[in-house]
Structure formats: structure tokens, C-alpha cells
Amino acid sequence: MKRNAALVVAFLCLLAFVMPWGAFVSDPFYIHTWSIFASTLIVITCNRLSAALWSSLIQISECICIIYQANVIFNWDNQYDAYYIYHDAFMLGVLILELLFIAVSIRKISAAIDEVTGHIRRAFLSFVCIYPIEYGHFSMHDNSECAKC
């Protein structure tokens, strides 16, 4: 189970994000409380399944989601509040970050990312070697005695 822990957590994150909470909860106020409950379950699952870095990062991001949801609940009356307005964009951004953490933790994907970044690094270094930096003629120093050199 620990071998596929990242895939289990990715499935839970996707399920918690796309869950149609409105179909199960009649009052929209309680949708956020159920979302907090789902985030808490994801934190507990990550803690039980793995002690890897990706698990810690997901636990931290889910705790941030819980704090954000609590602020949405706290300011429920004010629909012009920034927490309320940017709720969907924030949750989507956190989901993308979590999936990125999980994807990087999988060895085959991590190896592919290392290969791509290695090619980019080598291409950049070859570009720098082909086109070296040429210094311009503008200088703030008085180089009149060095100009003869």
C-alpha cells in the first residue's frame, strides 16, 4: 500500500475537489464544513500512508485549505470578501500544486523531469558557450590609461 500511497492520495485529492457537495448538503453554508472534513481526512491519510516529503507538503497545503475555508465560513455574511470571491481559484491552485507534488514524487515521472531539465540545462550552457558575453564600450570608470593596452 505504501508503494501506491501517492496514487491513493492523488485520487482522494481529486475526489474531494470534484465532489458535488451541493448534491449531498442542502445548505450551502455546510458545503465548506464538509470540505474542511474532507481536507482533514486527506491530512490523516497522508500521515498514515507515508512520511515522505510529498506527503508533508500535501499535509501543509491541506491545512492551508482548512484555514482558508474557515475564513470563508467566518466571513459568510460578506460576499465581497476576498476569501469568498477567490475561493474557487485558490482551491484549484492548491489542487494543481498537490498533484504536482505527487507527480514529482513518482520515480518514473521524476526521472523524466530530470531528463528534460538536463536537456534544458545543457542547451542553455551550450548557448552561453557559443555566444559569450561581449562587453560594451560604455563604462562608468575612466579607462584612459587602460585604453592603450
Which helices and strands appear, and what pairs or packs with what?
Layout: H1 5-18, H2 21-24, H3 29-49, H4 53-74, H5 82-85, H6 87-105, H7 107-130
Helix pairs in contact: 1-3, 1-6, 3-4, 4-6
H/E element sequence = HHHHHHH
Indicate the proportion of strand residues: under 5%
In round numbers, the mean pLDDT is 77
Radius of gyration, CA atoms, in whole angstroms = 25 Å
Task: Describe, in plain words, how this protein is organized in 3D.
It is a single chain. The mean pLDDT is 77. With 149 residues, the protein is mainly α. 72% of the residues lie in helices and 0% in strands. α3 runs antiparallel to α4 (53-74) and α4 packs antiparallel against α6 (87-105). The protein contains seven helices and no strands. The chain has a domain at 5-107. The chain is extended. The N and C termini lie far apart (71 Å).
